[in-house]
Structures are given as structure tokens and as C-alpha cells.
Write a structure and sequence with these properties.
Strand content: under 5%
Family: Belongs to the 4-toluene sulfonate uptake permease (TSUP) (TC 2.A.102) family.
Structural class: mainly alpha
Low-confidence stretches: 1-48, 52-58, 221-239
Order of helices and strands: HHHEEHHHHHHHHHHHHHH
Number of helices: 17
Keywords: Membrane, Signal, Transmembrane, Transmembrane helix
Number of strands: 2
Shape: globular
Pfam families: TauE
Largest sheet: 2 strands, antiparallel
GO cellular component, one term: Cul4A-RING E3 ubiquitin ligase complex
Main location: membrane
């Protein structure tokens, strides 16, 4: 009976994780158009907004009229599904949102990216609020690891700025190839990590069941049964709702807000100066002392033992060495660089990275979403000031993602408590990355084929000519 129950639990968990792959088929089958064709739609069929560039050329933003129909209904369903799974995995769901907005709703590629950032922000804000009421699965601390976020978020945002520059220079075919290779490799690694975690959970459940059976077989313990590990897990700190204000570390949150404001101000100011001008490089360079200064402040506390990475558990609550801190910072820059290069948020990189560093799945998802809230909201403010998206559409899909994230978090947390397997989060994370590789890779290949047919230039670009 126990074996059948474990098999049924395995099938249920894998079914929930693999259901994320259905979004790719829905996106591919819904409409045969690609993002470049959406940008070429006739003005009388769609709303077209022009944005003047510094060189005098105008980019045509294709904004479809907001009318109730099969496109917005199907797009809402896919967006809801992507936000629900993305919030659980800590990846946001941009790999689902961008193709949906371009292929189904009919936005041009740049507007699709901007509205996708709005949806990611909506989902991350609601997820962070939901997680603020929860605690660490094994420690009496918040579920979000503020010290880990403060250590890596400045480096992550600095890496994003560097990656955006490479995104302008690299050709589309190279970016698409890197995206497919990286996402397939990352999803495979995450699946293997999920299987490993699943096996450990199975062994633990068997040991708990064996201990409980031994206690039940002893007559002298029939009246005073000691609480088992399963009973303790049922009352784990992560399942206890607490005050939101008690779970907010205001000092760390204030430092993260300072980095957010500083980077946002520099990014907005940079848009009003010419590329490769003296002020352009000065504003880019000012991001370095901001990121390094905050990171060094956090690193000094971790080295002196004044701060600890609570997400790694009580057995590793010791002062970190310089080498370990350098590795964390290097991973943060690489995650941001890859995210900026591929046009994605840091969640697709940070989630698997946190898991490899030995952080519990619940804490990994919560912390990755927390850091993503800052980066996505910064992009939304910048896009709004540049008039990159229609406000009614953005507000609607942001609300959809906001509600979907809460529903996804609630349902999956209940399922984890029922199955007793946090590895479900890892499988959802891996599935979202795999689906994103299919959808974004498919759109990228379609755009490359379209450019090849038109014999357009496909080599490296000059940053100073953009």
C-alpha cells in the first residue's frame, strides 16, 4: 500500500511539473505568425505608435486594440498559467509571456518584452508578499534570505548592464544559439537536481515511516507517542503564517532599494545621451562603485561573522571566506550578464544557481523572486518613461499575473504539504526553463529565417551606431 501511494505521489508531482510544457504547444499552435511579422502589421488593423530615435529613424510599435476576443482570452489563460508556474519556480515566466504577447496578442517584439516585464513585476510583487508571511523550512527565520539577496543583487544588476551592451553587439543567431544551449543545459541540470532531491525525500519518508511503525509496535508507547518527524514537518516554520512586518529586514531592504534607485537613475539618464559619448561611459562606470560598495559592505559582515546566509541551514552558520564570497559575486555577475545578453530576468539563472549552492528549494524560489522584483520593477519604470507599452494592456496583464502568482503559490504549497516533497518546486523550475528554451528558441529561429530570406545583415553590430 505504501509503495502504491509513493508511486501515485510521484506521478502527481511529475504531472504538475510537466504540465508547464503544455504552454509551449499552446503558444505554437495558437498562431503561425512570428514576432517580425507582427511588427509589419497594417496600421489600419492595429494601433501603431512611433518612437523617434536619435538618428532620426522611427521605430513602429504595434499595439493591437484592446477588444474582447479569442486572442485576449487565450493570451490571458497562457499568461495566467505561465505566471502561476513561474512564481513557484522563481523564474518569473518571461519565456512564456514574450512569445504569447507577440504571437497571439500581436505586439511587436519590443513592446512584448516591455509588457512581459510588467507581468513579471506583478507576479513577483504578489509572490514576495505571499512569501513574507512564511518562514524558513527548518530555521526560525524569514523564508527570504535577505543577506543572500544583498550579496548578489548588486552584482546581478551590474551584470545585466554589461549583458545589455553585449546584446546590442552580438548577432541574433548567436544570441538564439546561446539561449537554446544554456536553457537546455540548465533545465537538464535542474531536472537531475530534482531527481536527486526526490530520492533523498523518499529515503527520509521511509525512515520516518519505519520509526513510526516501531513506535506503534511497542505496547508501552501506545498511550504516550512521541511526535514523529512527519508531525514536526506538518508544523514546520515555513507553514506558519506570521506578521509581514516581522519578516522584513528593513536595513537590508533599504540597501537594496538604494541600489534600485541608483541604477534606475543612471539607466534613465543614459537614455538621453549619445551612445559611446563621454557621458555615456561615465554613467555606465558609475554603476560599478554602487554595486561594489554595497556588496563589499555585505561581504565584510559575512566575513566577520556578523551576518550569515540563513538559507544554507544551521550546520553552515560560520563566517564565509574570501574565496567563497568571490565565487558568489562572480556567479551574480555571470547570472546578470547572461540574463542581460539573452533579454531575460535573472530568475532563470539564479534559481538553478541557488539550488547548486545547497539552498533549500523553497528559499531558493523565494529569494530569486525577491531579487527579480527589483530588477523587473526598474525595467518597468524605465519602459514607462520611454513609452514602450500601452498602459491599459500592461495594467490588465499585470493584474492577471498578480492573481495567478498568488493562486500558484497557494496551490503548490498545499500540494507540497500534502506530498511532503519540496522537490516539486525544482521540477516546475526545470519545466519552465525547458518550455522557455522551446518558445524563445522557436521565435528566434523563425526571425533568423525571415532575415535570411530578406538577405539582411546578420553579423556583429557596433555599439556606437545604435
Amino acid at each position: 500500500m505504501g509503495i502504491r501511494r509513493q508511486q501515485w505521489h510521484a506521478v502527481a508531482a511529475l504531472a504538475v511539473a510537466w504540465c508547464c510544457a503544455a504552454a509551449a504547444a499552446a503558444v505554437a499552435a495558437a498562431d503561425g505568425r512570428n514576432a517580425s511579422l507582427a511588427g509589419a502589421a497594417a496600421p489600419e488593423e492595429t494601433g501603431v505608435a512611433r518612437q523617434q530615435h536619435g538618428d532620426g529613424k522611427a521605430y513602429h510599435h504595434v499595439w493591437p486594440p484592446m477588444e474582447l476576443g479569442w486572442r485576449i482570452v487565450l493570451g490571458s489563460l497562457i499568461g495566467f498559467f505561465g505566471a502561476a508556474c513561474g512564481s513557484v519556480g522563481g523564474v518569473g515566466g518571461g519565456g512564456i509571456f514574450v512569445p504569447m504577447l507577440a504571437l497571439i496578442i500581436g505586439f511587436d517584439p519590443k513592446s512584448s518584452t516591455a509588457i512581459s516585464k510588467c507581468m513579471i513585476m506583478g507576479g513577483s510583487v504578489s509572490t514576495v508578499y505571499y512569501n513574507l508571511k512564511l518562514k524558513h523550512p527548518t530555521l526560525d527565520m524569514p523564508l527570504i534570505d535577505y543577506d543572500l539577496a544583498l550579496l548578489m543583487q548588486p552584482m546581478l544588476m551590474l551584470g545585466v548592464s554589461i549583458g545589455v551592451i553585449f546584446n546590442v553587439i552580438f548577432p541574433n543567431w548567436l544570441i538564439t544559439a546561446l539561449l537554446i544551449i544554456l536553457f537546455l543545459g540548465t533545465s537538464t541540470k535542474a531536472y537531475l537536481k530534482g531527481i536527486e532531491t526526490w530520492k533523498k525525500e523518499t529515503i527520509k519518508k521511509r525512515e520516518v515511516a519505519k520509526k513510526q511503525e516501531q513506535i506503534c509496535q511497542e505496547p508501552e508507547h501506545t498511550t504516550t507517542i512521541v511526535p514523529t518527524e512527519q508531525a514536526a514537518e506538518a508544523k514546520a516554520p515555513s507553514d506558519k503564517a506570521t506578521s509581514v512586518l516581522k519578516n522584513v529586514y528593513w536595513k537590508e531592504f533599504g540597501l537594496l532599494a538604494f541600489v534600485w534607485v541608483a541604477f534606475l537613475g543612471l539607466q534613465i539618464t543614459k537614455n538621453y545621451v549619445a551612445s559611446c559619448s563621454v557621458w555615456y561611459w561615465v554613467l555606465n562606470s558609475l554603476q560599478i562603485p554602487v554595486a561594489i560598495g554595497v556588496t563589499l559592505y555585505e561581504a565584510h559582515g559575512l566575513m566577520a561573522g556578523k551576518r550569515v546566509l540563513s538559507s544554507k541551514g544551521s550546520q553552515q552558520q560560520s563566517a564565509l571566506r574570501v574565496r567563497q564570497l568571490l565565487v558568489y559575486c562572480l556567479f551574480g555577475i555571470l547570472a546578470g550578464l547572461i540574463g542581460g545578453l539573452l533579454g531575460m530576468g535573472g530568475g532563470f539563472i539564479m534559481g538553478p544557481l541557488f539550488l547548486e549552492l545547497g539552498i533549500p528549494p523553497q528559499v531558493s524560489s523565494a529569494t530569486a523572486t525577491f531579487t527579480m522584483m527589483f530588477s523587473s520593477s526598474m525595467s518597468v519604470v524605465e519602459y514607462y518613461l520611454l513609452h514602450r507599452f500601452p498602459v491599459p494592456y500592461a495594467a490588465y496583464f499585470t493584474a492577471v499575473a498578480f492573481v495567478a502568482a498568488i493562486v500558484g503559490q497557494h496551490c503548490v504549497r498545499k500540494l507540497i504539504a500534502w506530498l511532503g516533497r519540496a522537490s516539486l518546486i525544482i521540477f516546475i523550475l526545470a519545466s519552465m526553463i525547458f518550455v522557455s528554451a522551446l518558445t524563445l528558441g522557436g521565435v528566434g529561429i523563425s526571425n533568423i529565417a525571415h532575415r535570411m530570406q530578406r538577405h539582411q545583415y546578420m553579423g556583429f553590430e557596433s555599439l556606437c551606431r545604435v
